[in-house]
From TrEMBL:
One GO cellular component term: membrane
The name this protein goes by in its record: MARVEL domain-containing protein
Bias (Low complexity) ranges: 7-17
Keyword Nuclease: no
Gene source species: Ridgeia piscesae
Disordered as annotated region, ranges: 1-20
Compartments where found: Membrane
Keywords assigned by UniProt, alphabetized: Membrane, Transmembrane, Transmembrane helix
InterPro entries linked to this entry: Marvel, MARVEL-CKLF_proteins
Membrane topology annotation: Multi-pass membrane protein
Transmembrane annotation, as ranges: 35-55, 67-86, 93-118, 124-146
MARVEL domain boundaries: 29-152
Length: 176
């Protein structure tokens, strides 16, 4: 007799991301993988720029200086946004925008590295510029890959908080 009674199943999933909310300095971001990539990118961009300006007036020096300085400023601002938690306050599509910007910088650094390598015989600093521009290309490429994976997995931002998923299932049987 009890087998004929209708049964209703209800399932509810709750996802909670822990971490500080609002604007505050997130020191854990500095030691996270995305944070270390940003720091490495800023250092390599700065070294590339310094090596590029040591020997002025070779073919393509303006392009190398432009790419390295614009990447340094962009990554620096992005790093500060993540460090103070402002990035998490921005709309979710910004991770896609960040991914596209990093794709552009990867291609720009590859072009800048080739331009510097072609002129590398003029001075040792131009050869160093080419080396660090290729290093920047590699670092930006790997970081772009990780950003693509984060975007593909549906993350709204690159974060270091812990995520907890709880699924609750309940069964309800109608009483007559």
């Amino acid at each position: 007799m009890g087998e004929d009674m209708p049964t209703t199943y209800e399932s509810r999933t709750t996802t909670t991301t822990s971490g500080p909310s609002g604007l505050s300095i997130r020191r854990e971001y500095i030691t996270s993988v995305p944070g270390l990539f940003k720091i490495a990118e800023m250092v390599v961009c700065f070294i590339t720029f310094i090596c590029s300006v040591v020997y002025p007036r070779y073919k393509g020096d303006g392009w190398v200086e432009f790419v390295s300085m614009s990447a340094l400023l962009t990554v620096g601002i992005n790093f500060i946004f993540y460090l103070i938690g402002l990035r998490q306050q921005l709309p979710p599509f910004m991770l896609l925008v960040e991914f596209i910007v990093y794709c552009v910088f990867t291609v720009f650094f590859a072009i800048a590295a080739i331009v510097a390598a072609v002129s590398g015989s003029y001075h040792a600093s131009i050869g160093a510029t080419a080396f660090f521009a290729f290093a920047a290309t590699a670092i930006f490429g790997v970081d772009t890959f990780f950003q693509f994976r984060a975007w593909q997995d549906g993350q709204t931002h690159m974060t270091t908080g812990a995520t907890t998923t709880t699924t609750t299932t309940s069964e309800t049987t109608a009483q007559y």
